[in-house]
Each structure stands twice: as structure tokens, then as C-alpha cells.
Amino acid sequence: MRGAMKIGYRPKRFKGPSRIGWPAVFSFLAGAVLIAVGLELFLKPNRLVAGGAQGISIMLSHITEMRMGLFLFLINVPFLFVADPRFGKKTALIRLAALLATAAVTVLLDPIPPLTEHSLAASMLGGLALGCGAGLVLRVGGYTDGVNEAAYWVKRKVSLSIAELVMLVNLSILAVAGFLFGWEQAIYSVIAYFIAYQSLRFTMRGHHRYTMVHICGGSLDAVRLEMQRVLGSGFPVVTEKPGEDLTVIITREQEQPLRELLHEAAPAATVSMVPLQSAKHHEYKYLQ
Questions:
Q1: Where are the domain boundaries for CATH 3.30.70.2750 in the chain?
Q2: Topology (CATH) of 208-283
Q3: Alpha-carbon span 270 to 278, nearest angstrom
Q4: pLDDT in tens, 150-203
Q5: Around 68, how many Cα atoms within 13 Å sit in the side-chain half-sphere?
Q6: Can you give the pTM of this predicted structure?
Q7: How far apart are CA 266 and CA 260, in angstroms?
Q8: Which keywords does UniProt give here (predicted)?
Q9: CA–CA distance, 123 with 77 (Å, rounded to integer)
Q10: Helices 52-64 and 162-181, interaxial angle, to 10°?
């Protein structure tokens, strides 16, 4: 299987949750600082929004004259409980830490005057900082915008795609910002949103959300039962030959729990993992 990574029976890889190294910590902190800089020193003082919970926080801060960092935290925390419980406590703690770090840095930057009062420059630089910062935080398992995260939960109840839901929510936020700050600022807000989106995509290049796992050998019946118990029944089964091999798709956050599960239930099994950009059967996209 192209791009597969053999993991097999390697005891050192199954000693528990993997530690977060210094590169991940640096990425995490740099992302939080960039998000706070983009929001507090570029977008907020120029009455620009880039959609999502950050946009709502900027508008509420403008209306109430309270610090934006407080709204960032209060708006995003409830969405931690909306997230898929199969992600586990470790992921929840990383996400909570991301929210706390971003909100704290934003509060610290509140007294600092804006770096520019030119709306076009603020929209470009603010969107760039916001998108790159969000990408750095997302790469280590955190999240910075609960509104977008909630789209994955709402998708179960409506016929719209996740991209359509996110776009609908962000357009609504930009429309409200237009009434609040004026339509000229709304145009610059659209520029900030576009640049933030493109810089996020660039920062996340090579980062995968899904993983195709091929398991060969071992007690596959026991493995499948354990997978349903630990991961739930939400993962699609691509192929299955009873007693021979099993191929499933899991999320990136489920990789470590699955490794621990395989160590306990099928230590002799041969396992290959392939990163995917899409989990749909008709459009698998393998990362090179």
C-alpha cells in the first residue's frame, strides 16, 4: 500500500500516550500568539471580523466594551462538550489548553495600540496572522474556533455538507458585522476571511484528518469488538475478510488509542496506516 507506515509489534510505541515534544509546544505557543496578534492588534481595532467565534467575540467586545479574550474563551468552551467523545481526555485537554492560551495572550495584548489603522493592511496582515496561527494550533491537536468545530456535529442533523454549514455561519457573521461596523468594513472583513482561510490551508498542507488502517493477522474478531468498544461504531469498514484482514478508516486523533488497543488485543498483527485527506469511499486522497 503506497505511503503505508509499518508499525507492527513495537513495544516502545505502545507505552501509553505519546509525549508532546518541544516542536509541538513551540507550534502551539506560536499559533496562540499569532492568533492573538491578528485579532487584537489588527482586526479588532479596525472593526474587522474573519468569521467564526473570533468574529462574534470582536462584535461582543465592541458592544460591551469588555475584553475580547473573555468572549473568546466563553464562546468556545461549550463546544468542547459538542466534540466527539471518542477523541478522549488527552485531546480535550489539548483543546482546552489552546483556548486558554489564546484567550490569555489576547487579554495581555489588549492595552497595546494597533500596529496599523489602515483597513486594507489590517485585513491582510490580520487574516494572515489568524490563519497561520490557527493552522499551527490545529496541527498539534488544539482548536481555536468552536463554531467551525460544531459544524461536524450539526452535519448529523442536516443535509448540508460541513463546508456549506461553515460558509453559511461565517456569511451570517459577516452580514451582522456589516450592519454593526458598516459595509465598507464588511468588504475588508471578507478580504481578511479569505486570507485567513488560504493561509490556514497552506499551514495545514500535508496534515491529515483521517487514516486508513489495514490490520492483517491476529484475533480480528476480538480486535473489531474492542474497536467498537473503545472507538465506537462510527468508523467505516472499507474491506474485511473474516479471520484474515480488516481495513477501516479512523480519525487522526484515534490513532494512538488504536495502537494501544492493538498492543493489548493483537500484539502479533501487522498494521499499515495511510493518511487520508478525505474519508469518502469514492474520493480517497492519499497524502504523499
A1: 208-283
A2: Alpha-Beta Plaits (3.30.70)
A3: 24
A4: 766 776 677 776 677 788 888 888 999 999 999 899 999 999 999 998 888 888
A5: 27
A6: 0.67
A7: 10
A8: Cell membrane, Membrane, Transmembrane, Transmembrane helix
A9: 27
A10: 20
